[in-house]
User: Fold this.
Amino acid sequence: MMELLDRYLDAIAVELPKEKQPDIIRELRANLLDLVDTAREDKGSELTEAELGQLLQQHGHPVDVAQRYAPDLPLVAAEDMPLYRTVLWHSAAVVAVLVLLKSLGLLVQLDSFNPVTLIISLIAGFIEQFSTVLLVVTAIFYGAAHAGWTEKWRQRRFEIKDLPRFPQARIRLSDTITDLTSAAFLLLLLWTPLWMSAEAQANLPVQLAEGSEFWRYTLTGLALASTLFSLYRLTQLSWQRWSKLWYAIEHLLFALVFAGMSQQDGLLQRTVAKGDVFEHLWQAADRSVSSVFMVTALVLIGLAILEFKRWYKL
Amino acid sequence: MSDERLEKLRLELRRGVLVLAVLASLKQPHYGYSLRKQLLDAGIDIDEGTLYPLVRRLADQGLLDSEWQQAEGRDRRYYQLSAVGSQLLGQLTQEWQQLNGSLAALIAQASV
Assistant:
């Protein structure tokens, strides 16, 4: 009959860490034998196999019993979830930016554009990259919890004055990521010679014309400043008066540059061969470049006014 | 209030004082079953699935000393308060008495 008890204990043992197995099983055996003794005394005779089986059944599933004695460390403890979530959000944002830039970089080299293919490649790329990030971040949290580091991570300092004064003063991660992506993509477009092969470059439908270096460097300066400022914002919870003012000024500067570009003729040079199937489209585009830049400038002025208003209210 | 919710809250309430009950019971050495019986006799019914792992955890934390002994022809692990456990028991008892006093006053006020 004791075979049942041994089978039960063996089933528990396989669920326990090897180093704890002998001690826990020895103690469990002693406790269970006491339990059997009590049941036998209550009954007044030896237990049948069925009664012993029922007693062990009531004691609990082997996996649950093992968990009570040697609980598994969760992959991420409940107390670490706020930090884990923040790390994952930021990682997801970085992955999204990288995947977007990669896809857009490929897109400018293609001679045809298929939005469905682009969206599918974006989603697939994001899932592929983010799966790895998720695995690595989770493994780091699990390892850190084992080493007892996460307790230190939880002891975050904060100053009341750094908290947003009102909900609107909170920096939205989505805005920062949009700005970061836009600036990085602008830099990619401005500096194709640095990352694109000469052959691919020669096939680009449109490029900055020679003699437009002033605009290339001005936009590069602004895009770099915007990138650095976006990276700084990633470390902040809320807008300060100076940061909001700079954000508004940044929009205004971009608007002025685009307005300036709209007034210059021959800013872009078309590299598509005559007789191209898109010839008529490019001709129309040539004529509307100036208008597109002006409209962009006007939109940016609108955004700058909005940001100045928000700065005033801060 | 549903019986299920009452049971859940009751268990939560008892879980908080379980450590104190176990430490107080282990001034004398006990093995698993005898400890459970002692608590039961005192009116505290704890499921062995909760009690035995708790005792092991307290021993791992150094609050209890343990020793394997042969008794009634069987191997049994006896637990007893360690010096650290004894000190902690004194502090927890004070805390409990203070809390109990405050709660008694609050409950008396509420029932007036």
Remarks:
- Residues 74-156 of chain A form one domain.
- DSSP finds 13 helices and two strands in chain A.
- The first strand of chain A starts at residue 206 and ends at 208.
- The mean pLDDT of chain A is 85.
